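Tutorial handout. Part one gives the primary structure; part two gives the three-dimensional structure as tokens.
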Amino acid sequence: MATVEERLQALEDQQAIYQVVCGYGYSVDGCNAASVGDRYVEDGVYAVGDMPSWVGREAIAAITRERGHLGLVGAGCAHMSSLPFVVIEGDRAVATCHTMVPMHGKDGFFIGRLSASRIELVREADGMWRIVHRQNYMLDGKPEGPALLARLNEGVSAS
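Part two.
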């Protein structure tokens, strides 16, 4: 049985990981490049199944300045994550969740993108959890998305 201190640390780690995962959407929709970048390690990767990957903190932060992103934000959108399922292995963790982008159009709001996400994180020397690799696959009927979600119990060691 884990000690009270170990149990408390696990809860604090889980809460910190929730903040990293959910804070991305607020940061990217607020076009806060510094906050977006701070969620990733220096050489982090953001991979979306149907797009080229963004590699490196600066490239990921720069999403907030891309014409396409600014157009989405200007028209009304929200990058949202469901509560992640978290597996912690020491100073490494994996969070699995759904992510979606509701968007505003001429007939109201609609879901523009719905994804399965697997987010690998590490606790850095400063004690902060940051994303090492984020993989999104669209939930569009192809097998990659459900297969990623099926791995929710797998930690980083299974990657």
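Part three, for discussion. The domain at 4-151 is CATH 3.10.450.50 (Nuclear Transport Factor 2; Chain: A,). The chain has one domain: 4-151.
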